[in-house]
Target: Xylulose kinase
Amino acid sequence: MTTLTNSCYLGFDFSTQQLKVVAIDGNLQVIHQNNVQFDSDLPAFRTQGGVHVHGDGLTVTSPVHMWVKALDLILEKMKNAGFDFSCVKAISGSGQQHGSVYWKNGTRTSLQLLDPDRDLHSLLQDSFAVLDSPVWMDSSTVKQCQYLESAVGGAQQLADITGSRAYERFTSSQIAKIHQLQPNKYNETERISLVSSFAASLFLGDYAAIDYSDGSGMNLMDIFTKQWSLPCLKATAPMLAAKLCDPTPSTALLGSISSYFVKRFGFPEHCKVVAFTGDNPGSLAGMRLQEGDIAVSLGTSDTVFLWITEPRPAVEGHIFCNPVDCSSYMALICYKNGSLTRERIRNECSGGSWESFSSALWSTPMGNNGSIGIYFDVVEIIPPAIGIYRFDQHDKRVDAFTREVEIRALVEGQFLAKRVHAQKLGYRIIPGTKVLATGGASSNKAILQVLSDVFNAPVYTIDVANSACLGSAFRAMHALVAGKGVSFTDTVRGAAAAQLAVRPNPSAEEVYGPLLKRYAGLEARVLMTTTQ
Ligand code: XUL
Model:
């Protein structure tokens, strides 16, 4: 095997709370990691968790200068740690999705002429029309969302074009709000970037295009033609196409790194900048998800990522263009009632012990003898409903279950929901499908067994602490060979494999096939009860 240790690839992740970087060598081994924590490393910006929550409780922004300064700092930290920039062949990165950056008229020229004797933060002092960038945690744009949906004919119509119905955090409504409330700032803007393409622009020394995958999180791009949708542009703000410029494939080589980084840090002149993307697409790459696979992250909120080829956009969940294969898609579904609900039921039904919680799962049969539970302690995203609902095998509502049945009903209900919603978005279990489990609860085998049975697929566990960064480093490496027809999967074949945790019981599909249909019907009933 050839050892390519003198080549390396960098992946950056501009996430909500920190900027991270991972360097891998030509053998896909991590050789360097570093990070800058916004709150503690850059206290002058006075963020909490990397953001400012405004007085209305709905508006959430981050100072754009903080992100620039974080890049100065992380590169200094790497230099001080002796990192050899001269071996970097390509860099890519990811950013928190949906957030937007507003470059001031005339800045393109300054970006092209950065003086290597000064830091980026001082060079770009006067480069942004909007200093507080709206981020994904913002939920202040209900009105703009309603307008956008009605302008294109409704929520489903918008999803059919852009992959998602209107969401407050998505970039269209954020841009519309800036245009409506701060028209001068909108007019002073020559280019609007996502956090990802903003970061790529810094490395490129020029405006970087928005990639298809992160561009799918804007409610502005037609995910099938991969062009900005005219009705969506029109419903958002005037002259928008000129401020966005055309989107680009996520595997695109944008160009060589700016001479600023060559002179200041010693990057090679031919080091390539590969399109940056969103953090969730970046994680899909980092987890090396393949067609038919599903990744389930079991954390404070549960998240499901899917690789799909025939997407069916719905008013629930999101369809994004796939970041590693331009002809495919990825779906993303987020659930609010994740770990906290599992912990509540553990406290109430098994005295706070995960061990007894697991014993209850092992001692109850697959399918729970027909009992189904839906547990929404807080208003769920999909479906938008709240409350606790228990049903017996005849779909009759009951007040209580025994403790063991309650525990199984919770875990089965959570996974049935995930499979039902994934299938609605076009997901199909195919031979060889894997479930990749991550997050806190992925260390619990009894929970994983239920996951495996409900999906009738083996479950693998994977450590994804840095998945978005790692995915970006993988993408940087792949982009150099993508033009020769090499697939992403082939590029990363040698990376550390996921661990097989459990296999499904042979009779799982027989049990859960009918339960999936019942669950979908009961969930629809619950939604009607909540919205009546
Ligand atoms: C996805 C989303 C978040 C951010 C977090 O739609 O809003 O996951 O990407 O960084």
In short: The two ends are 65 Å apart (CA to CA). The first strand starts at residue 8 and ends at 14. The domain at 8-275 is CATH 3.30.420.40 (Nucleotidyltransferase; domain 5). Residues 105 and 190 are 5 Å apart (CA to CA).
